[in-house]
Structure formats: structure tokens, C-alpha cells
Amino acid sequence: MTQPMFERVALIGLGLIGSSLAHVMRREGLAGHIAGHARSAATRDVAERLGFADSVHAKPADAVRGADLVMLCAPVGANASLAETISDHLAPGAILTDVGSVKAAVVRDVLPHVPKGVHFVPGHPIAGTEQSGPESGFAELFEHRWCILTPLDDSDADAVARLRLFWEACGSNVDIMDAEHHDRVLSVTSHLPQLIAYNIVTTAADLEEVTQQEVIKYSAGGFRDFTRLAASDPTMWRDVYLNNREAVLELLGRFSEDLSALQRAIRWGDGETLFSTFERSRDTRRRIIEAGQDTAEPNFGRED
Ligand code: NAP
């Protein structure tokens, strides 16, 4: 049997991402021991029952003790206090990473608590579903998805290389960029679309002339695709907007201007503007499919 990549991996947070990591590490034999921590007894009980970790701990410090890889997998707003709690218990030479959807704020919150001799390399797997919690994880989540690492200027090159190999063994492609650039890219590809989804669902819920029953009944017209995003975990997304404020606000300004342009085109019957805008959008969809980031099947491969 080949040697595991890490002797002991500590997962702090056992929701969709933490439990998926545990499943894929098991399948690929990446960890000698998987130690998990979750905040609530309910989540720890599910983790014990499903058995995706070798040990489940009520205290984060007990999970990280002796670990050569520690992965913060809780909502980003929890990182500062988690990092402070585990700081004194991290093993010298350990790699400390995270999976948070924003990166500059994670560096701001975690770095002050990283002891000398521990290698901090922030990361973000661009993979997810609208499900959350310990029962939602599965080993294939990261397959063919990108994982972005945002090492600091003085991050240890070996630690970055080992973490890259780890994510590749989980099935991901790995890219490296700085934290600020990551936050700008993700504001476009993830944070704004998610906010639009939340907003459309809210608007539809407040309508007077169209009944809620009609909204649900005729949702296949497009609305239901937004509800998939809008069903995501509220804590995680609250923390994303609180921690990527500038990039999201700047983009929202651009978005509102573009929306006004479309509004104006509709008002003035400017079919040419509408058509050329929609034509360009089609091209973006084609490029996502060519890049293997979605299925080309009609209606996302759904049968109904
Ligand atoms: P999730 O399914 O809601 O799980 C979150 C986990 O963190 C749960 O085990 C929860 O424990 C634990 N937790 C919450 N607050 C905590 C605290 N204060 N201290 C300790 N543990 C705490 O969330 P997720 O989808 O796995 O997301 C986890 C991280 O991955 C987030 O930072 C998110 O930004 C990032 N991410 C998510 C996605 C996605 O699509 N979901 C994709 C990429 C990255 P309890 O269950 O006991 O509350």
C-alpha cells in the first residue's frame, strides 16, 4: 500500500466541504488519520454515524493536535476565533489551509494567529452544491473543478507544492493567484450571481398580482434555476458578503448600469441592443461548456 500524503488531517467544520474532503481522502488513501471537529453535537453525531472521519472531536484543539494538515472548513466569519483557539495546538511544520469562498478577509483574520513554523496557505475549491451539512458531502465533489490557492508572498514553496498535490489527488485542477485578485474574480463568477438569485426569489415572494401558487407552478420558465442557488446556506453567504464587500459593491455598480441599459432598450423598443447583448451571452455559455465546466445537454440534462 502506498504511503498517505499526510499522517493526520484535521477538518475544522464537517459540512458539505469538510465531509466531501473526508470522503475523497478515504477513497484515495490521502490521510493516515482523519480527525474532524464540528460545533454542534448534532453534526458530530451524524459524522460518527456516517463514519467518514476516524475521530470526531468536540474541541477544535483536540482535532488539530499532531495534525500535519489542518483545513478550516467552517463559514469564513468563524475563522478568526477558530484560528485563535487552535493556534497554540498546531504542530510545528504543519500546513494550515482553509476552503473559504473569500480570501483577503481570511488572510486578515487567520494570519495573526499562525505560529512561527506553521505554513499558512489559503485555498478555495470552486465546487459546491446548494446542499449543506455533514450528510451532503460526496467524494466526487471536487472532480474536474478548479481549486485556487492564494499563497502569501513568504509562503513556504514546499507547503504550497504539497497542497497542490493534495488537491490534484482530490480530482481538482489547481491555480495560484493572489487573494485580492481571487476576490475580484469570484465576485463575478459566484458572489454576484448568488446575490441576483436571492434578489429574484425575494422579488417573486413579494408580488401582489401574481400568486405564490403561480410562481411555483410555472417555475420551469427559468425561476427554478435561481431557486437552486437561493437555497444555499444563509450563514455561509452572509459571511461572504460581509467579507468581500468592496469587490461585490464595485461590481454591483457595474451590474446596475448594465441593467439600466437593458431597461432603457426595452422601454424604447431597441431590439438591436437587446439582440446583440443576448447573442454575446450565448457565446459565454458555449465557452463554459467547451471548458468542461457544465454539461451541453439541454436543460442541464434534466428529464422534465
Ligand atoms: P456547511 O455545510 O454549512 O458546513 C459548515 C460547517 O462548519 C458545519 O460543520 C458547522 O458545524 C461548522 N461551523 C459553523 N460555524 C462554526 C463555528 N463557529 N465553529 C466551528 N465550526 C463551525 O458549509 P460548507 O458549504 O461546507 O462551507 C464551508 C466553507 O466552505 C465556507 O467557508 C464556504 O465559504 C466554503 N465553500 C463553500 C462552498 C459551497 O458551495 N457550499 C464552495 C466552496 C467553498 P455545525 O453543523 O455544528 O453548525
How would you summarize the topology of this molecule?
Layout: E1 6-12, H1 16-28, E2 31-37, H2 41-50, E3 55-57, H3 60-64, E4 69-72, H4 79-86, E5 95-98, H5 104-110, E6 119-120, E7 123-125, E8 146-149, H6 157-169, E9 173-176, H7 179-205, H8 212-217, H9 223-230, H10 234-243, H11 245-267, H12 271-290
Parallel strand pairs: 1-2, 1-4, 2-3, 4-5, 5-6, 8-9
Antiparallel strand pairs: 7-8
Helix pairs in contact: 7-9, 7-11
Bound molecules: NADP nicotinamide-adenine-dinucleotide phosphate.
Summary?
This protein has 304 residues and is an alpha/beta fold. Helices cover 49% and strands 12% of the residues.
Termini Cα gap: 46 Å
Largest sheet, in brief, is: 6 strands, parallel
The rounded Rg comes to: 21 Å
Number of strands: 9
Number of domains: 2
Shape: globular
Total count of helical runs of at least 4 residues: 12
CATH fold field value of the largest domain? Rossmann fold
CATH homology superfamily of the largest domain: NAD(P)-binding Rossmann-like Domain
CATH class of the largest domain: Alpha Beta
| Second-tier CATH architecture of the largest domain | 3-Layer(aba) Sandwich
Mean pLDDT: 96
The helix fraction, in percent, is: 40-55%
Q: Name the beta content range.
A: 5-15%
